[in-house]
C-alpha cells in the first residue's frame, strides 16, 4: 500500500439550521494514500461533499483532526488554511469557476503566480498542461464564454494542477458535461493519476468510478464500505464494472 498523505481522525461535522442540529459526519476515520485515485460514493445527502470539503481544508470540521503530511490543518487560522489549499490542493467542481474577464491562459497563470514568483517556469508548465489536455494554442487567449463546457472544464483542470498539488480534489467534475466531454476529462484524470497525481473525487457515476483504484462508500456520515481495484486499464472493463456494481449493491446504493 502507498504512503498515507492525508488522514482524518474522528472527524465530525454538524450543521445547524432552524435551531436543529444535523450530524453529517460522525467519528469518521480515513487515510488518503499517495498516488491513489480515490472515489467517494454514497447516496444523495450522505455527506460526500462535506467530507471532501473537510479533507481539503475548504471547510473546518466540528470535531476531529485532519493531518496532512504530519501537520494538523484543522487548527490553522483562515489565512494559513488558504495558504495550505493554494500550495497543496487542486480543486475541480461540477460548476466551472473560471474568471470570466480573463483568458483561460491568464486564469491559469494567475493561479500559478499566487504561489510562485518564477514566471517563466509557470508559463512553461501552463503551456505543457494545455497541450497535455488537448487544448491547442489557438484557444489559449479565448475567454471562458467563448469555449465549450468540456474545454472550460479542461482549462479549470489545468488551473487546478498548475501548482503541482499534492492532492487533486474533484466534486462531480463531469456532472455537467456531455458524455464525450466527460470521457475526455476522465481520460485526463486517469492519465495524470497514472503519472503519480493523487486524486480524491466524489461521483455518482459508475463511468467515473471505474477510473479509481479505491472506492469508499459513505452512509449516514460513516464509511461503510471500501473496494480496492487494480489501477485502471481499458481491458477487462466488464469485470471492473461488475465488481463496482456488486460493491454498490452490497451497500444498498
Ligand atoms: N452549509 C450547510 N448548512 C447546512 N446544511 C448543510 C450544509 N452543507 C451541507 N448540508 C447538509 O448536509 C447534508 C450532506 O450534504 P452533502 O452535500 O455533503 O451531501 P452529498 O452526499 O454530497 O449529496 P449529493 O450527492 O446530493 O451532492 C445534506 O443534508 C445537506 O443539506
Describe the structure.
- Keywords: ATP-binding, Nucleotide-binding, Transport.
- Belongs to the ABC transporter superfamily.
- InterPro entries: AAA+_ATPase, ABC_transporter-like_ATP-bd, ABC_transporter-like_CS, MacB-like_ATP-bd, P-loop_NTPase.
- The chain is of the alpha/beta class and 253 residues long.
- It has a single domain (35-60, 84-250), classed as Rossmann fold (3-Layer(aba) Sandwich).
- The protein is 36% helix and 27% strand.
- The protein is built from eight helices and ten strands.
- It has helices at 48-55, 78-88, 104-113, 119-132, 149-161, 179-194, 206-209, 237-250; strands spanning 4-17, 20-33, 37-41, 63-68, 71-72, 89-93, 167-171, 198-202, 214-219, 222-228.
- Strands 6-7-8-3-9-10 form a six-stranded mixed beta sheet, with helices on both faces. Strands 2-1-4-5 form a four-stranded antiparallel beta sheet, covered by helices on one side.
- The longest helix has 16 residues, at 179-194.
- The two termini are 27 Å apart.
- The model has no long low-confidence stretch (mean pLDDT 94).
Amino acid at each position: 500500500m502507498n504512503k498515507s498523505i492525508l488522514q482524518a481522525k474522528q472527524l465530525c461535522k454538524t450543521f445547524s439550521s432552524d435551531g436543529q442540529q444535523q450530524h453529517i459526519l460522525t467519528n469518521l476515520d480515513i487515510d488518503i494514500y499517495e498516488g491513489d485515485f480515490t472515489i467517494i460514493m454514497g447516496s444523495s445527502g450522505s455527506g460526500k461533499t462535506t467530507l471532501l470539503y473537510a479533507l481539503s481544508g475548504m471547510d473546518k470540521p466540528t470535531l476531529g483532526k485532519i493531518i496532512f503530511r504530519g501537520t494538523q490543518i484543522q487548527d490553522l487560522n483562515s489565512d494559513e488554511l488558504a495558504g495550505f489549499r493554494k500550495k497543496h490542493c487542486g480543486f475541480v467542481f461540477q460548476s466551472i469557476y473560471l474568471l470570466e474577464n480573463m483568458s483561460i491562459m491568464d486564469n491559469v497563470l494567475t493561479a500559478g503566480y499566487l504561489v510562485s514568483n518564477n514566471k517563466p517556469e509557470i508559463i512553461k508548465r501552463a503551456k505543457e498542461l494545455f497541450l497535455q489536455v488537448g487544448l491547442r494554442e489557438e484557444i489559449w487567449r479565448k475567454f471562458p464564454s467563448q469555449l465549450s463546457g468540456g474545454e472550460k472544464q479542461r482549462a479549470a483542470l489545468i488551473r487546478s494542477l498548475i501548482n503541482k498539488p499534492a492532492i487533486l480534489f474533484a466534486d462531480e467534475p463531469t456532472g455537467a458535461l456531455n458524455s464525450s466531454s466527460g470521457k475526455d476529462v476522465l481520460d485526463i484524470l486517469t492519465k495524470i493519476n497514472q503519472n503519480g497525481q493523487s486524486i480524491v473525487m466524489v461521483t455518482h457515476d459508475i463511468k467515473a468510478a471505474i477510473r479509481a483504484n479505491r472506492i469508499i462508500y459513505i452512509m449516514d456520515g460513516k464509511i461503510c464500505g471500501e473496494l480496492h481495484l487494480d489501477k485502471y486499464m481499458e481491458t477487462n472493463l466488464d469485470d471492473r464494472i461488475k465488481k463496482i456494481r456488486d460493491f454498490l449493491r452490497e451497500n444498498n446504493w
